[in-house]
Design brief:
Helix content is 21%, strand content 28%.
């Protein structure tokens, strides 16, 4: 049974996605899913911290203990599929991708108190590396997000001037890409926990530092309208079918 309201994403927001590349839904995540994602996030942070403690280090890859964590593609064997393939996400996928949707990627992005990290302007599609149909990023807030704690800023298509993937430069000392050097600050997403900012992989976005004494946790599932592949034909990430020919599978 579909428990998501048929009015979850009104035509006004669907049109905004077509015109500007994004929309924001406030307080749409069911409370039980929000609680589950917070619990899963805490468990995964504890796991990484234990591994770092055992190794006598404070950094593991791009994860820095107590500061920032990127915990990607760990949904198998967890309760996360209950949200990933939920009624709410089915409505989001139908409104943006149409009759076909595949889970492409998922990750927690966590900024520690008075730490975290900032990310320069980029398009998610720039990281795929091969031509592809744009996919969607669903930026799900596990905490209230503000400019002070490092929320995401989105640059509408109409102000960027294009909806195509633009050339990006790799930032020195990291794998981060940067694709916009103008002075438009973008539109900050300021919403309560349990909200979703849904944007196309060709929308430029950035985020700032977390300057507050609290954690800023986001869960980020991404969906594509078709399996995304590398030049050699291998899958770029996941291609788990969710909606095929209009039907949930």
């Amino acid at each position: 049974m579909n428990t998501a309201s048929p009015d979850l994403i009104p035509e006004k927001l669907r049109q905004q996605f077509r015109d500007e590349g994004f929309f924001v839904l406030e307080r749409v995540v069911p409370p039980e899913h929000l609680a589950m994602m917070r619990e899963t996030c805490a468990e995964m942070i504890a796991g990484y911290d234990a591994e770092m403690d055992a190794a006598g280090v404070t950094q593991q890859g791009i994860n820095i203990k107590g500061s920032r964590y990127f915990i990607a593609n760990r949904h198998l064997g967890t309760r996360l599929p209950g949200f990933i393939f939920s009624d709410v996400m089915a409505e989001v996928c139908r409104a943006t991708l149409g009759d076909n949707a595949y889970l492409f990627w998922e990750q927690f992005v966590i900024k520690g108190p008075e730490k975290g990290a900032k990310f320069s302007w980029h398009q998610d599609s720039a990281y795929v590396g091969t031509p592809h149909r744009p996919y969607i990023t669903c930026w799900v807030t596990l905490d209230d997000v503000t400019e002070a704690n490092g929320t995401v800023y989105l640059l509408p298509y109409s102000r960027h001037g294009t909806r195509e993937v633009v050339p990006h430069q790799q930032q020195p000392g990291s794998n981060d890409l940067e694709g916009y050097f103008g002075d438009d600050p973008g539109d900050p997403v300021i919403v309560p926990a349990g909200s979703i900012a849904c944007f196309s992989s060709t929308v430029l976005h950035r985020s700032g530092f977390n300057t507050t004494p609290n954690w800023r946790r986001v869960y980020l599932p991404q969906y594509s309208a078709e399996p995304l592949r590398r030049p050699d034909g291998s899958l770029a990430a996941f291609a788990e079918p969710f909606i095929v020919d209009g039907r949930r599978v």
